[in-house]
Amino acid sequence: MDEVKLIEIIAILVSFFSLVYVCVSIVINKKNERSIQEKITKVIIDYEREQMEKQMYAQAEMATSNPLRFSDMNHLLLYNLDGELKFSNTVTDNSFFEDHGINLGDFAVESGFVACLMPFISSYKPKYEAIRLACADAGLHCHRSDEEFILGDILKYTIEMILKSQIVIAVLDGRNANVYYEMGIAQSIGKPVIMVADDSKMGEIPFDVKSNRMLFYKNHNQLRVMLRDVLISNTNSKDEPRTKERDN
After folding, report:
1. Which residue stretches of the chain have pLDDT < 50?
2. Which of 4, 72, 129, 149 is least surrounded by CB atoms within 10 angstroms?
3. Per-residue model confidence (pLDDT) at position 152
4. Given this model, what pLDDT does residue 101 score?
5. What is the rounded distance in angstroms from the CA atom of residue 172 to the CA atom of residue 118?
6. Most distant CA pair in the chain: distance in Å?
7. For 51, what's the count of Cα atoms within 13 Å in the CB-facing half-sphere?
8. Closest CA to 189 of 236, 247, 243
9. Whole-angstrom distance, CA of residue 230 vs CA of residue 238
10. Average model confidence (pLDDT) for the chain?
11. How far is CA 17 from CA 21, 23, 33, 220, in A?
């Protein structure tokens, strides 16, 4: 093969690989642009959703801004709160779980596991931090369903979290429909539920709230202290190792 022919072949190969490089670069750039656009769209949608949720919660807080309104809107929740608070060590069977593809035999109550039900809006993060610290002070481990990225049925994940919990804490601020629904599930299977609500805008509460099933707080530090004291006083296994216990 003469030198001219070799140069032509090399030139053809260089041109071919250059063309391939350009094509691949165009495809990658289009994918990157699409990915960036999708991320921008998600940020915009998330922002708009959060603004709408803030307005909803503000309206809900106005609707419960005095003791009479709060009592009227929560009378079912506040009924019969004087029963003894005990940690759960059993998983309650119910056909409801089968409908969600949940096999109760796969679960065990985890000692020290606390499920927290609350809105996921960013302004509620300080509330969750206070609850998490209160649980930690009592030697317990608090979890909520948005702490992990869940691909698929978030309700199924939340139910599973409730199933393995010893106790459930529900934040009633904002009257979030999801929280009330999840709390109903927890109560229906016999999980002990502690409800917490901000009373800083309510003044005097005209009914007995001394039960450890319902806590009203004026600030996040008070929430931490009150909840910690209730958890410690009712923990009957705080000195035992934090191991999984499966029902017999």
Report:
1. 201, 203-212, 237-248
2. 149
3. 60
4. 85
5. 7
6. 103
7. 6
8. 247
9. 13
10. 77
11. 6, 10, 24, 63
